[in-house]
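Friendly challenge for the regulars: who can give me the structure tokens for this chain first? No prize, just bragging rights.
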Amino acid sequence: MHRINRIGVLTSGGDSSGMNAAIRAVVRTAIYENREVFGIYKGYEGLIDGQFEQLFSHSVSNIIQRGGTILKTARSKRFLTAEGRMQAYENLKKFNIEGLIVIGGNGTFTGADVFYKEFDFPIVGLPGTIDNDLFGTDYTIGYDTAVNVVVDAADKIRDTATSHDRLFFIEVMGRDAGFIAQRSGIACGAEFILVPETKTYIDNIARLLNHDIRKNKTSGIVIVAEGDDEGGAYEIARKVKERLPEIDTRVTVLGHIQRGGPPSAGDRMLASLLGYEAVLALLNNQYNIMVGIIDKKITLTPFEKAIKNVKEIDISLLEVSRILAL
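First reply, four minutes later:
Bragging rights claimed.
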């Protein structure tokens, strides 16, 4: 078995709250195991440019509560090329780094899988994305915080909706997956939750809203994932307004507010545990895998499986949401 003495860690793709907690766990676990750790700035871009810095225990002090990532992040087109990956490999050899831990989402793991297969270089991944769309883990780092941000915002918007008898369409992140919309929608008591995984029927929504109006329900919240098949919140609000001109509608797009802010207790715990387990996996010669958690148990999923398999949303919960909103 190959002994890894020096570990690199990077964050890649979209940032998510809890990444810093994961970095902290990786660094301190590695140091406890008498290994050296190097932070790589700006994801795969920094890997190519040689932006390496040794990290110590004090380097990650007071970051567990901070959103974003102290290592910065970026999306790297150069890493998609063989030349870019070769430069990244040469830099790892230059700094005598023998194993790599990457924190990110689908694109991050796609790059890691290719890199491992080209250079047989030990890599372990941590699921860091607010979308919660990675196969092989019940929850991803940043998802819980994003949901809480949406719920907090929706609660505030509902005060205005109720005061003015308005119907608010709140757009949340989720271009290809509706996990944020589904969970936050149930938690804030939304009248409707629209997600990419199901077809949206505007006529049906208008009919049910009209039924609500006849029951003297004068305000409401509709949570819309940005990837819904009928368009974003503005487009859906316009189509509903065409059918129900008497309804006073408003739209709020939450955007990148969902990615920022202090991580929730759940995300801090998840990131800390997965960061710890990632180091142990690497030191036990378990490579080209993502560390996740399923049914409260640590799981190791090959990158290829995590990337190619679709994590399915529980559609039945959308019906639960509608029943509870009656």
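The first helix runs from residue 19 to 32. The longest strand covers residues 6-11. Your move, everyone else.
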